Amino acid sequence: MPVPGVSIGLPAKFNFGPAPFDPKKPAEPPLEVLENFKGTFSGRGFNTIFRPNSDVTPTDVGVKPTDISDNVLELNLTAETQIFSDSLGPVPNRGLAQQPDIILSGLPYTQAVYDVTEEPIEKPLPKNGQGLTSIHFESGLWMRVPASKGLQPSYNRMASIPHGTTINAQGFTEAEKKPGAPVFGEVDITPMFLEGGEKQPFKSQQLGNLMVRRLPPAGKLGLIKQSMLDNPNSVLVEANEGKEILGNTTFSVTTNPEGSSFGGGTSNIGFLVGDKKRRVAPNALAFDVSATYWISTVRTKLDLPEFHPQGPDDGIVVPVKASRPGEVVPSFFIKFDVPKPRTVFVKYTQIQYSQIVNLDFAPLRWPHATVATLAPVAAPLLEKDLENVN
Cross-referenced InterPro entries, in alphabetical order (predicted)? Predict the structure, then answer.
């Protein structure tokens, strides 16, 4: 998947560690499941978001809609790249009184998401992103926080989004390993009332309804199907069809963990929050964020071409052949000699996620769902890692 991303570069040999005059140098704690977040991952997914619709600057949806005017449902088939930088090293947090110091570990990341709804699924995505519309950019940190007095160890995602929201999402439940492919629950994008929690469906959620406030308009939906709106996680299920998935590890993070004293949360700029004193309503206040990740080990065939490196740094990128248009597959970087073309088996790490951001505006809470399947890009491959060489 050649969609570009942006990395956060760290200075050579950068790590936190102690101050220069501190005689103790702590060991870096293990990243555990975050060890899988290495290098560049790209893939495809699906995004749904109910956007506020202004009476002053209304959104043109290509038809004369007859439904409620305060929102527009936007749907996107997506291409996505996430880039994970090197580990930060040991990150000390100092305890007070009877609370001992703790040492965190983690790594920076960036995420870039593009709309590809109208791009032919058979067409390779442009290497430089030319012609694609960017719909999301995020920079942040993944951190592993050890246990401390009164708190279990946690995974933390700290992120900043250009629209004016920052998040600190935590997961206090340990990652769970299971054999075989992941099992995904269902996701419902139906809004609910802030008072009482009763669900309020909208006509735009049914693709058969044409005269509604929805983007893209009828006729430009591409491969978007009703089943995807009914349950966005169905996109993850379809992405795994035909793959040999040996096992998976899953964990979740949320800005609203159980217990109000557990920290975390979202922070929004004034435009999003609104002002009750001046009776200015919220404009898509990001109330909370929850995300689940499935990290799978996948076994696949790789066709190696004849290759004779001309030096220790000479190498080529070899992609896995997709079994169907749009399938998310990895590519590998090899530097070893291949005397003649051959087919081998290799294993790789696949990342899938399902995220819900609840946005508050008007009298409702609106689920904003995003799912994606990501595979490594130009992942280093050693000859010793090849299986069943032919």
Answer: Heme_bind_FMP
